[in-house]
Amino acid sequence: MNLKNEKDIFDIMPFFALAHHIYKNKLDYSMKNPNNIPFIHESKYLIHIYKEKNLSQDDLANIFGQSKGTIAKHLRTLEDEGYIVRRVDDSNRRKYLLKTTKKGDELALLKINELEEWNRKVGVLDLDDDSMEKFRKIARKSEEILKDLGE
Predict the structure, then answer these.
(1) Alpha helices, DSSP H only, in the chain?
(2) Model pLDDT, residue 1
(3) Would the pTM of this model clear 0.85, i.e. be above it?
């Protein structure tokens, strides 16, 4: 296909399909990485727990827009494999805070490097601040619309 004269599939794909396609390719890339671990979906939670101290399950559910049950399932996997630990929050005894273990720190760094490599390869790092802010604005607006529908 001559891309100068003809459109390719990405020229006609809607915005959200493009975003989904990029994310799917990122997952496939992770699966083919020689350092692959079977915790592809869990790695995004692990990275956040590693970077942001004192996160709870509720915090992760809010950050990723997923149910507490979904988050709990993935956290249980990370905990069972020794990547994270839970500890009671001293200010709220009913709340558990999440922390990476030494093993979790090592895996989080590996996954952060993989993500940075992916972002560099596909050009995410070439996006200017204005473009990134536009994407964030779209994400915020989509969240607001859903919240308004739920009230």
Answers:
(1) 9-12, 15-32, 40-51, 57-64, 68-80, 102-122, 129-150
(2) 45
(3) no
